[in-house]
Amino acid sequence: MKKLKQCNLTFFPNVKNKVIILATMLIAFTSYSQNSYLKFKNSIIEKELIVGFGLTQFQGDLGGRNQIGKDYSLADIDMQATSIGGLIGFRYRFHRFWSTSFTCNVGLLKGDDAYTDEVIRNSRNLHFRSIIVDASARLEFIVLATNKQKRNKVKKRLYVFSGIGIAYFNPKAKYLDSWVALRPLSTEGQGMPGGIEKTKPVSATIPLGIGFTVGIGKKWKIGFEGSYIKTFTDYIDDVSTNYYDPNVLGSQVGSDAAYLSNPAKKNATWFAPGQQRGSEQNDAYFFANIIVSRTLGNRYWNKRDVTHHQFNGKRIKN
């Protein structure tokens, strides 16, 4: 949950260019690594299929702890807003210390001012839920690894990662016992006279995370992966700027738009048209997953014998 403070929206025109450059560099590095692994001594080629299931946590404008919000802080995590999610992915390890992975996380994000006793947010009374579909390409640095499963030595791996991705979201709120999509309602005057531009249901993302796995056989691993996802949108929860005139929304969009733009249940004078509704900080979210992976194939090279490799445990001449 982010602090409520006066909004001053700034558009960064070079964000897309930075995202494109980062994505191009990551793809180029992955392509190079996959075609030049024989140049590395002590190299490892390993392919894995990954699945996972776990929890999600949203950090945006809604809900939060019983205190003034703290931007992007674990101290403001609202356990009542925790939901579920899962992932599927593919990992390509091309060196002792490096691997790439491609993952798709799907989950539910939610937030509700009713979850906090902080007077301003509780009075504001906004809420949302949204599916999140997050696809990312990641570069992983392997901090610690035991590469072969032995009788008295379990295969294990500790890694950190970052990369580039894209996320789809569709915020909804409850109105007359039904969940209503919020983007078409223009709750902050999006696309209307005096309002801001229409928003998009997608955003570039940057994942940052850590993972740990242990072997449970020659081909299977189990572990944990936690990731923080930075986005470039403030509309996953449909709350960002200032209140729009509910009379205009009611006449041009509908009664559901008028109500959901401002459902304040007390201290209504704090939430008049033009007053602050959200903050200018972009949204973020967390994934915490128990993961299971299966090795699809592996090869090993070492300093003593670079003319042979191993594939699925068999030593083959190059």
Describe the structure.
The model is unreliable at 5-13, 32-41 and 303-318 (pLDDT under 50). Strands 1-2-3-4-5-8-9-10 form an 8-stranded antiparallel β-barrel. A two-stranded antiparallel sheet has the order 6-7. The chain has a two-stranded antiparallel ribbon with strand order 11-12. It has a single domain (15-317), classed as Porin. Helix 3 packs antiparallel against helix 4 (255-261). A hairpin with a 2-residue loop joins strand 6 (172-175) and strand 7. The protein contains 4 helices and 12 strands, in the order αβββαββββββααβββ. It has helices at residues 15-35, 119-124, 246-252, 255-261; strands at residues 44-59, 83-93, 98-112, 127-146, 156-169, 172-175, 178-181, 202-215, 220-231, 284-300, 308-311, 314-317. 13% of the residues lie in helices and 42% in strands. The chain is mainly β and 318 residues long.
List the quaternary state of the chains. single chain
Kindly estimate the percentage of residues that lie in beta strands according to DSSP: 35-45%
The largest sheet, given as strand count, sense and whether it forms a barrel, is:
8 strands, antiparallel, barrel
**Under the CATH scheme, which class?**
Mainly Beta
Radius of gyration: 24 Å
Q: Which sequence of SSEs, written as H and E, runs from N to C?
A: HEEEHEEEEEEHHEEE
> Remind me, CATH topology?
Porin
- Per DSSP, the total helix count is 4
Question: Which secondary-structure class do the elements indicate?
Answer: mainly beta
Instruction: Give the helix proportion (percent range).
Output: 10-25%
The strand order across the widest sheet is 1-2-3-4-5-8-9-10
DSSP summary, beta strand count: 12
Name of the CATH architecture: Beta Barrel
- Number of discrete domains: 1
Overall mean confidence score, pLDDT = 82
Distance between the termini: 56 Å
General form: elongated
The low-confidence runs, each spanning 5 or more residues with pLDDT under 50, are 5-13, 32-41, 303-318
